Amino acid sequence: MGFTVHWKVGDLGVGRETRTKRHRVRRILLWVVALVLLSLCRSSVAPWVYEPASNLAVRSISHRIHYPWEYVRAVWDHLVHGESEYAEACEDFTRLRPVEESGPVSYVPASRHPYMASNQTNNMHCDAYMTDTYATAGPVGRNLRVNSRTQGFGGYGTVTVDRQGRLVAVFSNGRGFQLELLDPYSLEELASHDLPSRPWYWILQGIMPWEYIGAGMYFYLDHLDRAIVPTTENTIQVIRTPTDDTSFDLIREYDLSDHVVPMRWPHRDSVAWVLPDWSGDYYWFATTGGMVGTVDASTGVVQTLRLEGEIIENSFAVTEEGVYILSDHALYRFSQDGTGEVRVDWRTEYDRGPAKKPGHITRGSGTSVSLVGGADGLAIITDNAEPRIHLVFVDRRDGDVVCSEPLFAEGRSGTDISVACFEHADDTGQGTGRVSAVVENNWGHHTFPHSRPESGLTRVDAARHEDGSYTCDTVWTNDVKGICVFKLSLGSGLVYTYWRDEDCPLTAWVLTAVDVATGRTAYTKLVGTGLGYNNWAGALFIHPEDGALYSTTIFGLVRIQDTEDNGTPLQSP
Asked: Is the pLDDT of residue 207 over 80?
């Protein structure tokens, strides 16, 4: 028996009106959540976000911040199923592969930038090439110990490590920003420096605190242990880190407010990313509105080039030959002529797709630019194509695409996170011409603070042949889920990602380690329960000295490290 539905124009109008009203209601509810969370930034009004601790210098993230319905479900499961089944569902640690199965990977190191701190530790993506890889071995899963710190709602955009092994990080609650010096073990705050906040009218700009990627979230640590921070006032601050009992010291500030894209109030362009030219004479910067420029480090003279009709969402990479910047339309290589004037070396368009994908911040590629090899090496990005995105390998010399590989399931394929990549090396340390890149699927309808990504962590290899051509192949795919800035430890041969445990009755957050060679899950570790441990697209970091892993959360920072049976930390090899 069939039937026919007769549509009228009025019916469609009502449907659109209903959807619009629902969208407005959802936006209002999200703003209410944002304002409530921001009100919890002071301990005096939110003592419940902390765990009781004898050492009040460091407050641990609470395990008790749950959705109301989770409490009801947990009590029901406890009464009906019993404590044993409840505990089993929230397994603390699961070893899936032997420790010995994973091991170090032979690779070609990225070039060390002479005016940045050592590789692994100088910015959100580890090094000037944005490889998101560490030479240091991360946790292999031996008696893992977790500790944390919180100061209410807010997390850390970038965590770096100075020459004394201390953490230098920017903390933000979505409006305010603070540069902090932290003890790498206890996470105690040793010093702090207030950075400019977002303007009082930030709520009118339509950007949620958890969507904000502008100034303050990204910075880099230079070779003199100075934090180079783009601020919300469209300046670049050069801040010396403390030595012994001293404090942070603002030693110079460059004003770029007259060199950004003009916008109608309340919207404002943002100097979001800055990196040093390889010569050290200039700072490169990029704004979210599509302005690219240089700042003379000595004189402060600014020179710019605007990408008309394009915006920038992601951080960029710098090499000896220039900087690689990805807009929502194309991948560029820029250089400066020795006087700071910006030149376009080449421009390569990519498939930006028909619209913004679920789980993305903007339309276009969601990755930063990642680099491998020398001047004849590759730049790696993803596009935004439908029905599947592609991992795209680009020749750094001329911008030609040498090969690409489709990723994930049709209609549910997208990433808003950078790839982790490296070139394999032979026994002599020479490059083999094979490049590996790991990509995470972030496609999903996310509503803060609840993410719903599709599964998929994939490794793709690009192999160079004798004639100079390349072939791309998918090596493995793991069904793990995540939306974090995951990291790859070449010292342990493990990829680390962080997301919810969907089997636990309460919201639980789990670190997952995946063998980069085989794609098999090595282990999972329960980090904490409750919204306080929610990573929400934050980054992971590995300490170069002891291999401890850090994850930012929406309520602070967690630290995870291998230990001996007696709890003594294991030192990284």
From this structure: no
